[in-house]
Amino acid sequence: MDPPRTRRARADAAAWYLSTILLGLILVASIRESYSSLAETEAAAAAATTRGNRLGGRACEEIYVVGEGETLNTISDKCGDPYIVEENPHIHDPDDVFPGLVIKITPFFPRINC
Fold it and tell me: Could you tell me if 99 and 66 are in contact, meaning their C-beta atoms sit under 8 angstroms apart?
């Protein structure tokens, strides 16, 4: 029969071992989840985007990917959205627009006075 100290030491070692394994499993699961959600987000964005040309008869979709040679002014004129910078807080500098940048487009239609 083991003395109580030896049993306690084994129990402590087993608890540390199991907690380390559990922490590792949680980390692996969270990494896998973040990669799968990132892939789903990219797939959804790719399915709903347009790269500077018409898709489905509309000039712009809600999610827009900046094409080569486009500026915020040309996109604003084409899509009818003068508030692109205000609606996209990830754009810190309006002059720093590059191909592949994803922006949100909300067409602005002026009211017609009746």
Answer: yes
Per-residue model confidence as pLDDT tens digits over 53-106: 444 445 577 888 888 989 988 888 888 888 888 888 888 888 888 898 999 888
Say how many C-beta atoms besides its own lie within 10 A of residue 50's C-beta: 18
Assigned token pair, 61? 């979709």
Break the chain down into helix, strand, coil percent, rounded to 5.
50, 5, 45
Q: Nearest CA to 48 among 62, 66, 67, 58? A: 62
User: What CA–CA distances, in Å, run from 69 to 29, 51, 73, 112?
Assistant: 41, 11, 11, 34
Contacts of 62 (CB under 8 A, 6+ apart): 48, 104, 105, 106
Q: Which amino acid is at 3?
A: P
Residue pair 91/97 in contact by the 8 Å Cβ criterion: yes
Tokens of 100: 């592949």
Q: Does position 107 have pLDDT exceeding 90, yes or no?
A: no
Between 83 and 36, where is the model more confident? 83
